Every structure is written in C-alpha cells, then in structure tokens.
Structure to design on (163 residues):
C-alpha cells in the first residue's frame, strides 16, 4: 500500500481532522514561503534591515512607513488564487468531514477555496484595524493610496484611520 493510499484511508476513517499548515501550502499559489532558499527570510536586506526584522511588531511601531512599504510590496499578493491543496481541504469540509484548519498563513486562500473552519494564528491581510481606535479596515482600504496621506498631507505607505 502506498503512502497516498494510507493517507486516504486515514482521512476516510477519521471522525475529526485537524490540518496544520503554513507558508508551504500557498507556494503553489505564487506566494513565497519564509524559510526556503527563495523564502522571504533568506532575501537580501531591505532598507538596511532583514525581512524578519521588518515584519516584527517592534519594527512596525518604530517605523510604520517602512513596515507598510515592505508589507504591501512583499507580503500581499492580491491576485493569488487557491490551489489544489486549499481546494481539497475545502472539498473535505463540504463533504461533511469534521475538519479544522489551523494556518500560519495570512493570505485568506483557505476561505477563498470555501473552508469555513479556519483558525489563523497570525491574523489575515483581509482584516486590519487602527491601533489607536480599533476601527476595522479591509485589504482594499489598506492598499488604496488615497488612504495613505498623513495628517500633514504627505503621501506615505501607512493607511490612516478615516475616523
């Protein structure tokens, strides 16, 4: 019996399934992972910093303009579509399997494929909020340049709260 046949047998006989995934699930959709040779963490320094440092919370608070520049140009792929892995997991759920997806990904591709039981460990690019007042914003708002003008009228990469 092949490994694939064993896996299919386990899935078929399971009452509950938990799928834990990360960046490797979305690479087939054209989204780079973090740790492979071509991954984001192995990229050359950007703005004099490592990519891992730029996406940290501390860096975000210290230099939001550089953070958002990197976020918008290196981490958001608005044209990405669910791949066969996302679709297979959604199909399992739609067939009645009790499946929960735990993902480190922020791309929302599991939900785009139709999965409902998705737990995002690192949040989502599709749900953003103002750290001062808590107002919620979608990805379109974050990406829209007209929302990136600071209180002094300067254009920036940081989306500003409309409230």
């Amino acid at each position: 019996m092949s490994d694939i046949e064993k896996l299919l047998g386990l899935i078929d006989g399971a009452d509950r399934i938990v799928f834990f995934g990360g960046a490797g699930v979305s690479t087939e959709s054209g989204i780079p992972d973090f740790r492979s040779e071509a991954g984001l963490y192995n990229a050359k320094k950007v703005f004099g910093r490592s990519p891992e440092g730029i996406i940290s919370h501390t860096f975000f608070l210290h230099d939001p303009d550089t953070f958002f520049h990197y976020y918008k140009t290196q981490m958001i792929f608005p044209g990405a579509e669910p791949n066969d892995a996302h679709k297979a997991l959604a199909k399992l759920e739609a067939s009645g399997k009790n499946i929960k997806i735990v993902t480190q990904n922020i791309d929302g591709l599991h939900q785009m494929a139709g999965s409902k039981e998705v737990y995002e460990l690192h949040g989502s690019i599709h749900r953003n909020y103002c750290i001062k007042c808590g107002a919620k914003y979608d990805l379109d708002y974050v990406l829209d340049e007209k929302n990136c003008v600071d209180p002094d009228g300067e254009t920036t990469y940081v989306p500003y709260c409309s409230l």
Q: What stands out?
A: The mean pLDDT is 93.
